[in-house]
Amino acid sequence: MSSRRQPPADGTWGAWQRAQARDTGHPSGGRRGADVALTIAAYVALLVFGAAQGLLGAFFYAVGPAPLAALGFGLAMIATCVLGGWGMRGVAGGLVPAVGWFALVFLLATGTSEGSVVVTATTAGEWFLFGGSACVAIGVVTCFALWSAPAARR
Fold it and tell me: pTM for the whole thing?
């Protein structure tokens, strides 16, 4: 049997948390450093995942019928934003992959000095840029609606 206290079965979490804080000297029970590192790693992973979806979409948005692949990538971003918000239990979890997507896609959509672009001004390219932007906005607004509680409920 370990010396670490287990949470009570009767649901008195407040007393258990105060006991953990008293034993370790920290309100989170001594796990703050590990929790912060894991949270930062999760946000970085969400940022990279959003950017990777943007990179993949930027090269494959025109596969198949014109707007179909672009809309599929947009729907994937809605799911990524909502599931990121759900996993992180907050709006930032949905906002971070959106930032990664926007940053990479609009970087690839801007032209170089030679005039080459990855996301072109075709029907599929416009569906990918504008439809994807709308889908990312839908995902982030959904996160705001689900995890941004009014002050009365907090």
Answer: 0.72
